[in-house]
Amino acid sequence: MDWSASLRLIAPEELLSVVGLGMLLVAAWVGDRASRMLSIVAVAALVGAAFLVAPALCAGSMGVETEAFFGQFRADSFASFAKLLIYGSAAVSLIIAPAFFERFNAMRAEYPVLIIFAALGMGIMVSAGDFLTLYVGLEMNSLAAYVLASFMRNDGRSLEAGLKYFVLGALASGILLFGISLTYGFTGTTSFAGVHAALDGQISTGAIFGLTFVLAGLAFKISAVPFHMWTPDVYEGAPTPVTTFFATAPKIAALALTMRVALDAFGEQVIAWQPIVIFAALASIIVGALGAIGQINLKRLLAYSSINNVGFILIGLAAATPQGASAMLVYMAIYVAMSICGFVGVLMLKDAEGNQVESIADIAGLSRTRPMLAAALAMVMFSLAGIPPLFGFWGKFVVFDAAVAADLVPLAAIGIAASVIGAFYYLKIVKVMYFDEPTGAVTGKSDWAHSVLLAISALVISPLGYLLTKWLGAMADNAAGALFHVM
Amino acid sequence: MNGFPILSLMLLVLLGAAVACLFANARTARVIALAATLIDLGLGIVLWMNYDIGGAQWQFTERVELFAGFSWALGIDGIALMLIMLSVFLMPICIGASWNSIEKRVGEYMAAFLLMELLMIGVFAAQDIFLFYIFFEAGLIPMYLIIGIWGGADRIYASYKFFLYTLLGSVLMLIAMLWMVNEVGTPDIPTLMAYDFAPEVQTWLWLAFFASFAVKMPMWPVHTWLPDAHVQAPTAGSIILAGVLLKMGGYGFIRFSLPMFPEASAQFAWLVFALSMIAVVVTSLIALVQNDMKKLIAYSSVAHMAIVTVGLFSFNVQGLEGAMIVMLSHGLVSGALFLAVGVIYDRLHTREIDRYGGLAINMPKYAVFFMLFTMASIGLPGTSGFVGELLSLTGVYQVSSWVALVCTTGIILGAAYMLYLYRRVFFGEQKNADAAAMPDLSLREFALMAPIAAVVLWMGVYPESFLAPMRNDIAALDARIARARPEGDARLAAGKPQTEKQHETAAAHEGAH
User: Fold this and answer.
1) What DSSP letter does each residue of A84-96 carry, written as one string?
2) Among residues A169, A303, A168, A166, which one has the least CA distance to residue A236?
């Protein structure tokens, strides 16, 4: 392994580090005046990084030539797929931010810098080939995210969100580290390939403990039940652009990381973790659906909906097959589009003075006052509920297909039956927007950048999205192939 | 017409018109919607004209590999052709029925109806099991909006109930479909129809499909969404619900349950018979005591659809043909009855039977039409209802005389509640001055009713036109399920043919006397 090859493989990370550090200097010397310019630079850097990772995905790279630094870092097609989603979500969170923060005079130069560092950390997470790389990436992302959650430092709710996120996130990191140390103790290595080899055959009780704690720590990060309690509070309290970010990029990163850990490091012990994943999947679907029913705040509702969606994604993991992994990736891509459409739609709900409107009661009769916005939100709701012909159905379709192919028919049947509970509260939003009389609360103008993003994401989740299925499926198969290559 | 994608064209016309309606004002939207539905009716007639009776089983097939797990595959057989004709025939009437009664958000309303028609044609034409599922489920969205936005006072409860009931019914069907496609390796419906699943898995698959189609049909006891949805929906919504949406359940049985799982169908035939017998008697009795006209017709729908299910599961040609004719006839007749209720609802804004009376005096033309549809609903010979019910009951008689006996009471009870309704609304004293002052049918309303009346009589007098395209397909289905056919309790035995010699001796014997 020569160093130049390793350095070439981590080119996207190098680019983001250099740009991030440069931006930090500019932010320190120029101050908040530079925030708009820095946002543009950050988006450009993310687009550049996306171009750097795309070839690996299209070529379906896997195996030894993608391993950097003696297997600690993997720039394979799986990592590329996740990174493309992460960079895309991060770029969206940058584009939607200025219009939101400038109203409060809170658009500071740190925002793009923090997003870049979070994206860098997430890139390292999904490329991890070793538990230590994993931890470094995870913490890098988390520390940036804690600050982002409390970015509106004059707003009590935002501060509360940041603090809650920090305390529970630190706890999760502790649990994860404990699991990693147990795993290390019982297998004698921290590299995924080493753990994979050491667990070939019998698994010791200690290693099972390690595995369980690692999965518990990761469940915190993906907000799977029973470690989901922080999600609604943080999503509600954090500024909406930051919530958009939380609901997309870190979730993708943590899910991809979970896939890597479960299918690669613990790939020989599917029997040991499959029950855990099945429980988490079903519990997330049911708790996410039931929890959402009583909500009166749109952002909280979308938080429960994200818990619900994680449950469906985990059904693909429970299948533990390449088809299941590919299905998870397809679902994640669709989930990102749905979340962006949903949160940008929420961002566009403003009253006459330009204040954000977040309560469900205030969007009554939205279809009369803002028909396009209402139609987009209704599409998100039907799509999240998985009603065809909207694109959200396709995500559910592929994960259930994978579960059925892996002989998990009861899991699929219970999961899909529970999805009907979710349909109830998604329908409620549509009902409020379409059937109720207008309250006239939402009258404010929308930023053009928001409208463009809303239109693009709505187009993706519309039935036209099905035209992407072939291409998306081929890319996801490429990525999933890399994940199973070592086996 | 070889290779011309006429089915896709039908769908495309509707899609384009639906989008146009969203951006048009009320007047233009109505015209666009009417034009689009009439174009589709025209295309439907072209389809029927070019349908080669006795030709290939699947005609007008199209296949484009557009998507990852499934393909854009369309094609029809005779059964699908007839149901598509029913949809395209009823749709312009629906648009006409909403011409004046819908005043708010007309563009969106028309768009929802056009999408609804698109999805209905898609359901009947889909040749790919997942494409079928997408069309089948997608229909929930426009119908939910139609009931919820333009419905009556209790519309929100009704729209929720409709949506969640039908969704819960059909999600398990998706899992069954995924399993089947995994097993067979293709989502192509004709291939699946010819595949023999092991009898023990058929049981589960059949139940999953049954959950969906029984709700859609609807069968007792999962029919309770229907009266709510019917009563709250606007007139045209009721027409389309009763006329076509319910037929999706019957179509599902005939396209999926029977040919794909013949053994399980035979195994569960008793369940279908039991539920249908209960439905016929119970819902007919419920219909007898209704005060709301729409509710009465809604309950009568459940009873009629029960005749369809017994016909389908009688495993013989008469039963299957009868079930199809009942479906077509019920689509027309119940659609017409809902339309007729809509006519007086538009004038007086109530569906209470007691508010009317003696309408035959001031609305004679209306009374004649209503009488015709009442008779067709009862199943009077000469109307479409008779043909279907007779065939259906003949079919089931060969399997079980008891089922036939109980289901036949449906005709008697049907006569009771329909004639009772007719007497209360049209005969007797004119109790209320406002009801007595209602004008007779306008030209528009006459133009909506007359075509249905003509087709009802046509189907009653010469059903061969409608049976001919379906005959081969039903014969093929009958041959497919023959191996599981249950032995009937009637024990029909043909008499021994006598030889010529016996005849002679008998004759000689007689001569001797």
Assistant:
1) HHHHHHHHHHHHH
2) A303
Q: Which residue of B has its CA nearest to A410?
A: B175
- Quick count: other Cβ atoms within 10 Å of Cβ B340? 25
The percent of chain A in helix, strand and coil, each rounded to the nearest 5, is: 80, 0, 20
Q: What is the rounded average pLDDT of the residues B366-373?
A: 91
Q: What is the pLDDT of residues B59-92, one digit of tens each?
A: 888 888 888 888 888 888 889 999 999 999 999 9
Phi, psi of B32 (to 5 degrees): -60, -45
Pairing of strands A67-68, A73-74: antiparallel
For residue B312, what are the β-bridge partners?
none
Interface residue of B19, B166, B170, B178 to substitute, partner A, most A CBs within 10 Å: B178
What ipTM describes this predicted complex?
0.91
- Taking every pair of Cα atoms in chain B, the longest distance, rounded to a whole number of angstroms, is 92
Q: How far apart are the C-alpha atoms of B124 and B81, rounded to whole Å?
A: 8
Per-residue 3-state assignment (H helix, E strand, C coil) for B11-77: HHHHHHHHHHHHHCCHHHHHHHHHHHHHHHHHHHHHHHHHCCCCCCCCEEEEEECCCCCCCEEEEEC
- Please check whether residue A413 touches B, CB under 8 A: yes
Residue count of chain A, please give it: 487
What are the mean pLDDT values of chain A's consecutive 10-residue runs (487 residues total)?
82 92 92 87 93 86 80 88 94 90 82 93 92 92 92 88 92 93 91 88 86 92 88 90 92 92 87 91 91 88 92 92 92 94 90 82 85 90 89 91 90 89 88 85 80 90 89 90 74
How far is residue A89's CA from residue B103's CA, in Å, rounded to a whole number?
Answer: 43
The pLDDT of residue B332 is 92
Tell me if B94 sits within 8 A of B76, measured CB to CB: no
Residue A334 near chain B (CB below 8 Å): no
DSSP state letters, B307-364: HHHHHHTT-SHHHHHHHHHHHHHHHHHHHHHHHHHHHHHHHHS--BGGG---HHHH-H
* A387:B69 CB<8 A: no
The neighbouring-strand residues paired with A73 are A68, A128
Q: Which of B358, B352, B404, B382 is nearest to B456 (CA)?
A: B382
Kindly determine whether residue B175 and residue A400, on different chains, have CB atoms separated by under 8 Å. yes
Position A487 scores a pLDDT of 46
The residues with which B188 forms a beta bridge, in sequence order, are B128
Tell me the C-alpha distance between A218 and A88, whole Å. Answer: 22
**How far apart, in whole angstroms, are the C-alpha atoms of residue B353 and residue B454?**
27
Q: Residue A92's pLDDT is what? A: 93
For residue B155, the chain A residues in CB contact (below 8 A) are 435
Contacts of residue A378, defined as CB under 8 A and 6 or more positions apart, other chains included, come to A367, A429, A430, A433, A434
pTM for the structure as a whole? 0.91
